[in-house]
Write a structure and sequence with these properties.
Layout (H helix, E strand, L loop, with lengths): L1 H16 L1 H14 L5 E7 L5 E7 L21 H8 L7 H7 L3 E3 L6 H4 L15 E3 L1 H5 L3 H6 L4 H23 L2 H16 L1
Parallel strand pairs: 3-4
Antiparallel strand pairs: 1-2
Helix pairs in contact: 1-4
Length: 194
């Protein structure tokens, strides 16, 4: 209850306080990147229930690429690269938090195909609301650079990164606490600023 109460209050005031930033970024995207402002995609939420995640669009329209993003690839626009660097593309997810589809801290929401691969105790992760940030997000804050350094990014993601994220998220599930969540949020914030 404490966590959900914090999510509601913090996301509500976050949307209000950050509204000038949200409007400014939306205007920049509209002026410099033809196409929609938002990137909307179905993700698996709590208990595997699908929901639509909202992010600022950082890629060209109809790129037809794969499910992993690599730093420097042609799909990401120059403006999009800046938004990704400072995590500004994630700000619209505050709306998902306010609606109860996400939390500030938790496992990042996967595509439905990935959650279908969870087995046995791994499925306990689905009892959590997905988060804007979390322990796995912190560990792999350089994920796009890491994927850019391997010959087959999709395979590396599926065989190395994703299984490790599952392990980290399961550990978070077992040891989560409100104080721990606050520390994760602070580490994320200072990481984005630094």
């Amino acid at each position: 209850m404490l966590k959900r109460g914090f999510d509601i209050v913090a996301s509500f005031f976050g949307l209000i306080l950050l509204s000038p930033v949200l409007l400014f970024v939306a205007l920049l995207i509209k002026l410099r990147m033809p196409g929609p402002i938002f990137f909307c995609q179905e993700r698996a939420g709590r208990h595997g229930k699908p929901f639509t995640i909202f992010k600022f669009r950082t890629m060209i329209v109809n790129h037809g690429g794969n499910t992993v993003s690599v730093r420097g690839e042609y799909r990401i626009t120059p403006l999009g690269a800046v938004l990704r660097k400072y995590k500004l593309d994630e700000l619209p997810e505050l709306w998902n938090v306010l609606k109860g589809e996400m939390s500030f801290v938790g496992p990042r929401p996967d595509m439905p195909g990935y959650t279908d691969k969870l087995v046995d105790e791994e499925r306990q992760i689905l009892e959590l609301r997905p988060g804007i940030t979390g322990p796995a997000t912190l560990k792999y804050s350089n994920e796009e650079e890491l994927l850019a350094s391997v010959s087959d990014p999709q395979r590396y993601n599926d065989e190395v990164l994703w299984p490790d994220k599952v392990r980290i998220n399961l550990e978070y599930y077992r040891n989560r606490s409100f104080v721990g969540d606050i520390l994760i949020m602070l580490k994320t914030l200072f990481g984005c600023i630094g």
